[in-house]
UniProtKB/TrEMBL annotation:
Organism encoding this protein: Amycolatopsis decaplanina DSM 44594
Highest taxon listed in the record's lineage: Bacteria
Name the UniProt record assigns to this protein: DUF998 domain-containing protein
Residues spanning the membrane: 20-39, 59-76, 83-99, 111-133, 153-175, 181-201
Lineage: Bacteria, Bacillati, Actinomycetota, Actinomycetes, Pseudonocardiales
Keywords: Membrane, Transmembrane, Transmembrane helix
Keyword Membrane: yes
Amino acid sequence: MSPRTASDNLVHNYLFLRRAIGFLGIGLPFVLVFGKMALDGGGLLNSISGYYYSGMRDVWVGVMCAIGVFLLSYRGYGRVDDIAGNIAAVAAVGVALFPTTPSNGDRADEIIGLLHLGFAAVFFLTLAFFCIVLFTKSDKEIPGARKPERNRLYVTSGVIMLVCLALIVLCGLVFDDLTKDLYPALWLESVAILAFGVAWLTKGGTLLPDKTVTAGTRVTA
């Protein structure tokens, strides 16, 4: 087997970053929900962000900051990818450091909560942009590639995130009294995060990888 080239190492590093982001995204809702039940007892909270006010606070902040660091380190095909990654990274850290408004919060808490909502919106919108626009691009044609299948998955994931974001706003502003006992924000945020995780795992070659292997390295576009 030939030794890895610098290009091979770079590809492996990018695949690692994508997979790490994907695994963190997929694992986050499950770890928060079941971890809170194990540590604090009780039932569900109103939103994923609400777990900041539980025994899972450090996990919530740590995972979001880790996602932010990975996104900041991520480099795609061009300058737009880099800018989008930087925006998503700042938004991820902002979501972690500016918590959602607690139930008994004061005016300062409400302002911080608005910042949280703003960062969360930017985070999900940027990730949807990654899925629908950036992930569907490729700078190469690989024989036997499963790019069309992956593109369908990327677009589906991005659309799911946008739909979930719209439904969260709709439930909060219009149907709050009718849906609040069903925890709509928690479920919709969880679905959006899972869609984001699946897209990044796919981009990292874990899901729908190409069968073509060159110089011992599998490349996923």
